Amino acid sequence: VSHIFPFLDPIPTYENFLTNFDSFPATTMAQQQQRPISNRPISFLNRNGLFLLLLALLFLLGVYLPLSEAPLFLFPNRTSPSSTPSPSFVVSDWRDYTLAQAAKFVAKNGTVIVCAVSYPFLPFLNNWLISISRQKHHEKVLVIAEDYALLYKVNEKWPGHAVLIPPALDPKVAHHFGSQGFYNLTSRRPQHLLDILELGYNVMYNDVDMVWLQDPFKYLQGNHDVYFMDDMTAIKPLNHSHGLPPSRNGVTYVCSCMIFLRCTSGAKLLLKKWVEEIRAQPWSNTEAKKPHDQPAFNRALHKTTQIDVYLLPQSAFPSGGLYFKNQKWVNETKGKHVIVHNNYIVGYNNKLKRFQDFGLWLVDDHSHQSPLGKIE
Fold first, then answer.
1. What's the gap between Cα 311 and its chain centre?
2. CA atoms within 13 A on the CB side of 101
3. Separation of first and last alpha carbons in the chain
4. Which residue from 6, 66, 119, 131 has the highest number of Cβ atoms inside 10 Å of its Cβ?
5. How far is it, in rounded angstroms, from Cα 340 to Cα 214?
6. For the residues 100-124, what does the mean pLDDT come to?
7. CA distances from 349 to 18, 133, 354 (A)
8. May I ask which residue range the UniProt record assigns to the signal sequence (predicted)?
């Protein structure tokens, strides 16, 4: 040891120690006993004891802890249902991160804000998040990732705010409107929302082709089961009725892209009926142009009479067919707009250009306001 650590004395044998001990002069022993503690040299036993203790500590840190379940080395797939992720996590594998864990992590005041999106629409997700951050509600957001690429990207940038509910979908086809891939994505929405309600949370759902201009929660007052927006382009009076709107050919035209549901038996009943309606009308090539989840939502509303519904003001929650196509109405309702939906147009590039034309594409100049930051 002494040739490696020259400051240490060679470790003597037990016999040498006894011989040396017997040969110590009595006066020397007395002097050693009388010498103040602060002036005594560190004995070879103390020095080598410290050395061995240091070796043992290094061994524990280098070998034991990485093999243990110590919190320092926790990953999401090792957490218990009550555990929550922290920004210190190394994003290695989020496959086993559960909806229960994720909802508990993001919920604030018993509410979760949800979107469902696949990787190609990551820029739209970021744009939506910027607008929510401006209203100070982004910490409630849970991104339901429809593929692993988005799951890892969001949790890399913003740990704990994305979860994937298997099976993962093909990101290349999930957003082609009217395709089976699009149907596979949107048809899972009511079950996701129902699962969150069953966990005991209120839930707001948004498509990510929306932008928040004001705080929508001031419009979600009262004890109604479900709140939704009209998808019609016909102009309603500012004080229009907030009940279920009149039907068109026997079916209302309510938008399923922005919904707020309280954790009530009525809301759960509606979502169960919505799931049933989707399953009763599976995707087919002959019906390919229909976004099946929305007609199914409207049918479920008509067939579920035991719920308290609330139609949000059109001036605050306009459809894209009204906001982007009726400038006169926009001017007359200026200052009242809360959430704008970029619908009534198909295609990624078309939606992007329309947002840009109306000053609602925030990513280019304001990415620092998003919890995801700038996406390279």
1. 27
2. 24
3. 54
4. 131
5. 10
6. 96
7. 89, 24, 9
8. none
